[in-house]
Amino acid sequence: MCRPGKHFFAQTSVAFIREYSIIMQKEHNPGMTAMLARENRNMPIFLNHCGVSKMLPASADAARAQIDLQAQKGSLMFQDWVEPLNDFKAGGAMLLGTTPDNVSYVKNTSEGLSLLAAGYPLQPGDEIVSYDLEYPANHYPWKVQEGRGAKLVLIQNRTHAELCGGLIEGPGGFRFEDVESKVTSKTKIIALSHVQFTSGFAFDLKRMGEFCKSRNIDLIVDCAQSLGSLEIYPEQMNIAAIAASGWKWLMGPVGTGVMYTSPALREKIKIIFAGADLMVQGADYLNHTWNPHTDARKFEYSTHDFVGTSALAASFKSANAFGIKRIQERGRELQAKFLSRIDQEKYKPLLFSSENRSGIISLVPAGRLNAEEVGKQMAVQGIVVAPRAGFVRIAPHYTNTDAEVISAADALNELS
Ligand SMILES: Cc1ncc(COP(=O)(O)O)c(C=O)c1O
């Protein structure tokens, strides 16, 4: 039996560090390798990047540095200060193939989507098309708009059995035609999660974007379960806006998020939150001229989170140094390794066709233990997986090694 004992942790740490060294060599930061060796010793095997991720060491360091700065200097911290939001925007823009003026800091996905939903010029009778099993972040902000006469039109879930054959019931996804069939002349917005948090189903962004462009509909996407693991290029894909959390696939801190908005969408959106940072005159506080920023600062209404933006800027830097295309490929490689090892009689994987695959593999346990129990037993062994909606979700990332996913599959096989 292969359980991750002491020796195993020592081995995986070395492989992990080797992978990181590649990034850090590019960054000319030799001290980082030694730091990673310290940080990663005796770490569990972490395969829950679709939940709350382990923060990248570089991101945690950046956060600590910002906290220390304020702790030691208070307002004097600004003497030699470099605004972390600039790096944040540059890094986010590089990841998304856009320019920094289209990238905003938000606290979380819900805040970003709420700002867009509440500010969108919806008239009574206008329709928003979404999916019935969305995560709350991409449901309630739209639901609230029913208060001003808009209608939230939901496509019904199709199980994996319906989409791909087989027997697996429960949350799955939808077909492109399901969305198309709900669209009418009143549809203004299609609001979907790129990747469903339950099944790991991903919809085809490019195809949906083309459709939305042809019908003059704004495609607004919750990318909490994909940004940092899959390639997303809103300008090429005709996406009006995306919002994402920083603490999943980006491996940043809880309480951080990022939002992309196209200039055309921003122009339509009414300002909902306002404060000093919204205005072009900035720190000229007694000048109350109404002169709001029109770039992505339109949504950064007041004092932002220096600690969080510093950390998430470091996460973007790491993802960009590795390369998002390579991260996506590496995720697939790790999944293939895992799937070749897992006993598919004991765990039924929800496998989708290539264009609907994401970083998540959801498994249905077929043995005596349910998903929650599997999650608990794996945690006892130092392996972090994510039970949700009856599935055990496995979400490996570019920071994982082959040995880790193989070890996780072996441990799962031993369980049921
Ligand atoms: C699809 C999706 N959207 C959003 C979130 C998180 O939203 P928020 O950043 O508002 O907490 C999650 C978290 O699991 C998610 O799976």
Spatial extent as radius of gyration:
22 Å
Structural class: alpha/beta
Total strand count, please? 13
Annotated CATH topology of the largest domain: Aspartate Aminotransferase, domain 2
CATH class assignment of the largest domain = Alpha Beta
Q: Tell me about the biggest sheet?
A: 7 strands, mixed
Shape: globular
Report the average pLDDT across residues: 91
**Helix residue percentage:** 25-40%
Give the CATH superfamily of the largest domain.
Type I PLP-dependent aspartate aminotransferase-like (Major domain)
Number of helices: 14
Q: Based on the structure given, which CATH architecture of the largest domain is correct?
A: 3-Layer(aba) Sandwich
Label this structure with key terms.
416 residues, alpha/beta, Aspartate Aminotransferase, domain 1, Aspartate Aminotransferase, domain 2, 2 domains, 7-stranded mixed β-sheet, 4-stranded antiparallel β-sheet, globular, disordered N terminus, binds pyridoxal-5'-phosphate
